[in-house]
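Researcher: Here's a chain I'd like modeled. Treat it as a single chain, no partners, no ligands.
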Amino acid sequence: MKDRIRILLVFCCCFLLTSCLTPPHSFIPQKTEMVYELQQEKDSAFLMQVRSAGQEEFASFHLREQALFLVRGTPEGREEAQFLEQPLTTGKSWKWSTGTATVLAIEPVQVPMGSFQAVPVEYQRNAQFQGKMVSITERIWFVRHLGWIRIEQKIDGKLFALQELIRCDPPSENSSVSGKGLDYFPLDLHRSWTFEKKSEFEAGKE
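Model: Modeled as a single isolated chain. Structure tokens:
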């Protein structure tokens, strides 16, 4: 159970699935909350805490001019991948880990927090999962001055997990505010995003 929660935290935060997930032997729908909070800043590097079901993980974002990079540890060592680049113009693409990220056309999106005009970015790559090579696709919807509001994850075209924004808590008046970030991803310290996560696992079927 701890490994399954850990891989969901990493996958939901940095969108890269690893092989440590041990799925259950039957179909199990799960529903919980995911909380992402920016906690520290040093030299344009931001530490984000990810909390879910009593577990926590951390990710590091690095801001470089008009681009935001994600840094994580892998079995092979440290990996850095470009997460966003502004402006988010339709059709723009960049290298994402071993795959590609592509900006899609702005569209209306409904989540528990409300209705928004959002820009989807689709992240695609191939990775080992359950002993075989699979195609991993994540589509994340971003709203100007708010950040991410919806995260959809698929493996070989089948829905794996869905997160939708419940609320976004800005920094308190007593918290330090960095005033940095991108138009579609503010990097204010102690800002947090709370998502409702629905995940489905199905083992033993090709």
